[in-house]
Amino acid sequence: MALQLTTRSASISLRDNNGKSGLVSVSFPSTATPADVVAAAGNLAPLIAALSNAAVVGATATFTYVETEPTTPGPQSEIERRLVLTGRAQNGGVVRVSVPSAIFELEQSGTDAVSLTNQQVAALVTFLTGNAASVVGSPIASISKAYISHRYRAPK
Amino acid sequence: MAVYARYHFRDNNNSVAYTQLRLSDRVIAIGNVVGLLSALSNAQLFKVEIREPIPVSYGQPSGTYTLAEVVYRVDYYYRVVRLPISNDIYSPYFLDYRPEDDELWDLWTLLDDIGAAIYGVPATALVF
To answer: CA–CA separation, A123 vs B17, rounded Å?
Structure first.
């Protein structure tokens, strides 16, 4: 598994007095580091603001990493069949994380429920609740439920 | 700076879907979380897209802006910058514009600085 940074861009968001929004997008060559892009976006914003009578309301740096050693999709892989984890953020907000094409080993007979003690599930839950992940600015406090969901199939 | 990370998967029917997480920084976003997600899926994780919001806010909207398209060129590569130009700057002569206006000159200079630092090309290679 190896991720390679392939594209870098920055966009400046504007809003006019009719509430309409627009973007200024700039792409960067492969020699630009993420720090270069973030710094350039911060520097571009006031210059764009000086050129426009709309307000600059935000900026975003976007980075795309491509897997250079991708695995072959499993023979019965199906992205509509998802592992869903639900829980609460520290501020009480609802947490919902889903992973496409869940491995079949997670399934239990006669139910869509997935055990939170499963080794791979527990590893992701530990990561999500370890203050690295958040929803609406609040760290994830707990994951209380895991199940398999399919967009086109009724629950068991 | 918190980032939004999208992990893109592809199944054996070539259908794609993603998982989105809000994570504390981009280093974490391309760290072991990639392996954790891959271990739970039998689809192929083929791409990670990271969006990093940068807190900036300038000015109040004072009018409806006009989108003008400005093209700058580096060597053989054309890159497009879409500029929301104020009505007072925009004119039918814009396409022939040369950077004499202060605001456009500032932008030109910044793009040139990026070019000097990143592209490694002289200012004359930037063509508006």
So the answer is: 22
Partner residue facing B89 (CB), from A51, A75, A100: A51
Q: Search chain A and give the residue with CA nearest B25.
A: A132
What is the 8-class DSSP label of residue A102?
B
Q: Which of A11, A51, A95, A119 to mutate to test the interface with B (most CBs of B within 10 A)?
A: A51
**Calpha distance A59→A36 (Å, rounded):** 14
Distance, in Å, from the CA atom of A46 to the CA atom of A49, rounded to the nearest integer, reads 5
User: In terms of Cα–Cα distance, which of A93, A75, A145 is closest to A114?
Assistant: A145
Q: Which residues contact A41 (CB under 8 A, 6 or more apart)?
A: A10, A11, A12, A26, A59, A60, A61, B54, B56
Q: Kindly provide the ipTM of the predicted complex, given to two decimals.
A: 0.91
Domain ranges in chain A?
Answer: 3-67, 81-150
What length is written for chain B? 128
pLDDT, tens digit (0-9, with 9 covering 90-100), for B15-49:
999 999 999 999 999 998 999 999 999 999 999 99
The residue ranges of every structural domain in chain B are 3-51, 66-125
| Closest residue in chain A to residue B104, using alpha carbons only | A51
